[in-house]
Design a protein that fits this description.
It contains 4 helices and no strands. It is mostly helical. It is globular, with a radius of gyration of 11 Å. The two termini are 16 Å apart. 21% of the residues are buried. Keywords: DNA-binding. It comes from Lawsonibacter faecis. Pfam families: HTH_3.
Length: 67
């Protein structure tokens, strides 16, 4: 089972989205996205929901639109 930080990073890269672009979409800073992906910081539920929306990742299991 993939953890959220790996899923976020892999999905972002697969979609060709930079950390900076994702940060703008989610309305957080690029360094914060980097810290989430590295596991140094945990996103709030609100930020996690926005990240999942921007990357089209289902929150509660299932497959993304790309799968």
């Amino acid at each position: 089972m993939t953890d959220y930080k790996t899923l976020i990073r892999e999905t972002r890269v697969k979609k060709g989205i930079s950390q900076g672009t994702l940060a703008k979409l989610v309305e957080v800073s690029q360094p914060f996205i980097a810290e989430i992906e590295s596991g140094r910081k945990k996103p709030s539920l609100d930020v996690l929901i926005r990240i999942c929306g921007a990357l089209e990742i289902p929150m509660f299991g299932g497959k993304s639109k790309d799968e």
